[in-house]
Structures are given as structure tokens and as C-alpha cells.
Design a protein that fits this description.
A hairpin with a 4-residue loop joins strand 3 and strand 4. The radius of gyration is 27 Å and the shape is elongated. It has a four-stranded antiparallel β-sheet, with helices on one face. It is built from two helices and four strands, in the order H-E-E-E-E-H. About 6% of the residues have low confidence. The chain is α+β, with helices and mostly antiparallel strands. The N and C termini lie far apart (82 Å). The chain has two domains: 31 residues; 71 residues, no CATH class. 33% of the residues lie in helices and 28% in strands.
Length: 116
């Protein structure tokens, strides 16, 4: 069995340092450029709001073009619960509820979908 000399150790350590520097450089480039790669400035889909229901279930309000869509997500799949035009006024009050407890925004959309 041959023994390794100090030049072999220096060569191995030099190679190790080069590999680490390449790895760090790659990670820095991915972090800086990663979110921008393949994305254009005009997003067609926007997540307007998300509500966690627990147990790997969520309600997500998504804006697509001129429409707002309410989606239900679970561990087994995705379900479209409702679709509304963007000009829908979700802040109007329900007729059977007093004004002081009426809901706005996401809660109003959810209550309208569930009452359909």
C-alpha cells in the first residue's frame, strides 16, 4: 500500500475547495435568478386570498382574467365551488342578517357559494 504525500493532500483539498466554490456560486445564481426564470411580467392567474380549513383542506380565491373563482383544495383533489365576474360586489349585506354582523370579502363569497 502506498502512502500519500503532502502534495496529494494539498491537491485533494484544492479540488474540494473548487467543488465547494462551484456549489456556492450555483446556489447564489439559482437564488437570484430562480423566481425570474420562465416568468413573464403579465400574470394571468392571481391568488387573491387563501383560507386554511385544517386537515390539508383549503379554500382559495383565484382571479383569472375578468373572473374570480373559488376553489376547494383537499388531499384528494381540487373542486371549483363558484365563479363570479370581477365586478361582483361582495360587500353588500345579506337580507336576512343584520348589518352589524354582515360579512365582507372572502367570508361573504364563501357564504354566497354555500347558500346556492
Amino acid at each position: 500500500m502506498s502512502s500519500l504525500g503532502w502534495t496529494d493532500y494539498v491537491s485533494m483539498m484544492g479540488s474540494f475547495v473548487v467543488v465547494l466554490l462551484l456549489l456556492i456560486g450555483t446556489l447564489i445564481m439559482i437564488k437570484r435568478m430562480g423566481p425570474k426564470v420562465g416568468m413573464s411580467n403579465s400574470k394571468k392567474i392571481q391568488i387573491l386570498e387563501a383560507q386554511n380549513l385544517g386537515g390539508r383542506q383549503k379554500l382559495i380565491l383565484v382571479g383569472v382574467g375578468q373572473e374570480t373563482i373559488l376553489l376547494g383544495l383537499s388531499a384528494t383533489g381540487m373542486t371549483k365551488l363558484g365563479q363570479f365576474p370581477n365586478d361582483t360586489d361582495f360587500t353588500s349585506h345579506d337580507k336576512d342578517r343584520p348589518e352589524e354582523i354582515s360579512q365582507t370579502g372572502f367570508q361573504s363569497i364563501l357564504s354566497r357559494v354555500l347558500n346556492k
